[in-house]
Amino acid sequence: MLSVRDVHKSFGDNHVLKGVSFDVGEGDVVAVLGASGSGKTTLLRCLEFFEHADSGSMEIDGLQVDLTTHSARLSRSIRQKTAFVFQNYNLFNNKTALENVMLGLTVARKMDRASARKIAVAALTKVGLGERLDYYPCELSGGQQQRVGIARALAVNPKVIFFDEPTSALDPELVGEVLGTIRQLAAEGTTMVVVTHEMSFARDVATKVIYMDGGVIVEQGRPDKIFTRPENERTRRFLARYLQDFDYNI
Amino acid sequence: MQKITLEKIIYFFTGSVPALGVTFAYVIVSMIFGTIIGTGLYRMKSSHSKVAGFLANLYVTVVRCTPSLVMLFLVFYGLPLLVGGEAGARMEEWPILTFVCVTFSIFIGASSSEIIRAAVEAVPAGQAEAGLSVGLSGMQTFRYVTLPQMLKNAMPNIGNTVILLIKEGALAYTIGLRDVLGQAYYLSGREMNAYAVSMYIALTLIYWPLTILLEHLFAAFERALTPWERKGKRAALRRTAEGGAKYAG
Ligand SMILES: Nc1ncnc2c1ncn2[C@@H]1O[C@H](COP(=O)(O)OP(=O)(O)OP(=O)(O)O)[C@@H](O)[C@H]1O
Ligand SMILES: [Mg+2]
Hints:
The structure holds two protein chains of two kinds.
Chain A: E1 2-11, E2 14-24, E3 29-34, H1 40-47, E4 55-60, E5 63-66, H2 72-79, E6 82-85, H3 97-108, H4 113-126, H5 142-155, E7 160-164, H6 172-187, E8 192-195, H7 199-205, E9 208-213, E10 216-221, H8 223-228, H9 233-243
Parallel strand pairs in A: 3-8, 3-9, 6-7, 7-8
Antiparallel strand pairs in A: 1-2, 1-4, 4-5, 9-10
Helix pairs in contact in A: 3-4, 3-5, 4-5, 5-6
Chain B: H1 6-16, H2 20-46, H3 50-64, H4 68-83, H5 85-91, H6 96-121, H7 125-133, H8 138-167, H9 169-172, H10 180-190, H11 196-225, H12 227-248
Helix pairs in contact in B: 1-10, 1-11, 2-3, 2-6, 2-8, 3-6, 4-5, 4-6, 6-8, 7-8, 8-11, 10-11
Bound molecules: adenosine-5'-triphosphate (ATP) and magnesium ion (MG).
Residues 11, 14, 16, 34, 36-42 of chain A line the site of adenosine-5'-triphosphate.
C-alpha cells in the first residue's frame, strides 16, 4: 500500500538519511524507534513533502512519486492521501476544534458544510471530544489538543497517517488518553506510521517495528521478534537502554 | 491680537469637513498600493534569490533615507521629467491627488514590507505545515490559516499607518492638495489669515475625533478578526482561577 525506497537527505554536510526503504501494508501499524537525531522526524517530513529528499521515491495507493519533487501540485495530490499528526499538535490556533477538523474537508476537498460537519463531529466524538466542538485550541489541554489533531487527520480519510512522537510533548498523565486513541484506531485497521519512544505501545500495538540509527534502518520486523530476539547488536543496546527502567518480561 | 470666534470656527469646520473625502481617497489608495508593493518586497526579501533580496533591501533603505517632503517633490516634479516626452507632458495634467498617492504608496511599500515580515514570522511554521498536511494548497493555507493570524499581528501597525497618513496631508498641501488641511488653509488665505487661530481650532476639532474614532475602529476590527484571542484570555483567566482555587483548597 505504501512503499518507501532509498530515501537520502542531507542538511548541509550532515547526511541525515542514508537510504531508507520500508513497506507498509494496509492496516499495518508501523512503529519507528531510534535514538534522538537518528532521522525519524526527517524521514516522516520527507514523506509529507515538508522537506525535499535528495533522492528516493514512494509508492502510495498505486501512485509512484519521486520524493525530490518540487511540484506543489504533485506534493498536494500525494498529501491528500496522507495525514500528519505533529509532536506539538499544530492545531490551527484561529479555529475551533470543529473548524480544525472541517477545514480539510470543506476547503481542500470542496465538501459541502453539512456533510463536512457530520464527518468532523463523528471524528471528534470518536476521540472523545464530542463535547468540545466549539473550543479553541488555547482552551484545550495538551492531550485534548492532540486528540483534535488525530481527529483532523482521521476526518480526511487518509490511506495512511504519519505520527511524529504524538505523546512526547504531553504531561505524563495525559499520555495515556492519546495512546488509547491511537490504540483504538489500530484496532479499527487504520494504517499508521508512528515515530515513538513509548516502548510498551510499540510492542503491544505495532504490527511492525522499525529501528533506525545513524540514518539507516538497522532492523525491522514483527514486534515480538524485535523486542525478544533482536538480531543486531545496536538494536539490542538501544532496547536495553530503553527497557531497563521498564517493567519488561520476556 | 486675533479674535477667536465660534462663528469662524464653525465656518472653517463646515468648510473643511467635505475635503475629508480627499483625505480618505489618498489614504485608501495609498494603503492598497503600498500593501501590494510591500507584499512584493517581502516576497523578494524572503526568496532564495540574492539579487531579489538585495534589490528589496535597497528599496527600503533608499525610501527610508528620503525625507517625505523630498520624495513628494521628486515624484511631483521628477516623475513627468523621468517619463519624458509626450507621456511626461500629459502626466503634468494629472490631478495632484495622483502624485500624492504615488508618493505615499512608495513610503508604505517600504514600511509595510517590514510589518508583513514581522506578522508572518509571528505565525509558527507548523501552522502552515498543518494546513498542507490536511490537503490544502499553499494559497488556501495562507488564506485560511496564516493570514487571519497575521492580521491580528499587523492590525495595530495598520492602524498607526492610517492615522499617520491622515496627518501627512499637511505635507501634500505643499504641492497644492486640497485635503482637509489644504482646504482649511485655502479658506483662511481668502481672509488674509485673519482668523488663522480659529482655523487651527477647527482643524483640531476635525483631527482629534477622527483619530480617536479610527483607533477604536481598528481595535474593534482586531477583536472581530480574532475571536480565538478573547476565548484564550477567558481560558487563561479560568485556568488561573482554578489554579488559585486548587492552592487555596
Ligand atoms: N531543518 C533542519 N536543518 C538542519 N538540520 C536539521 C534539520 N532538521 C533536522 N536536522 C538534523 O537532522 C538530524 C536528524 O534529526 P531528526 O529530527 O530527524 O531526528 P529524530 O530522529 O527525529 O530525533 P528526535 O528523537 O530527537 O526527535 C539531526 O542531526 C538534526 O540536527
Ligand atoms: Mg523527531
